[in-house]
Design brief:
It comes from Novosphingobium soli. This is Ribbon-helix-helix protein, CopG family. The chain has two helices and no strands. It is mainly alpha-helical. The longest helix has 17 residues, at 22-38.
């Protein structure tokens, strides 16, 4: 597992939905970020 700044895992645990575990949260977060980065450019300093 990746290292996170102190307090991050506690924040994740506090935000979990009923029946969701940390792995579920991480998978969803990574998938959403990949879709965002792989999607069409939206402008900004790092995007065309």
């Amino acid at each position: 597992m990746a290292r996170f700044p102190e307090g991050t895992l506690g924040r994740i645990k506090a935000a979990l939905r009923d029946g969701e575990n940390q792995s579920d949260f991480m998978r969803e977060a990574v998938e959403l970020e990949l879709r965002r980065r792989e999607g069409p450019p939206v402008g900004g300093p790092d995007r065309s």
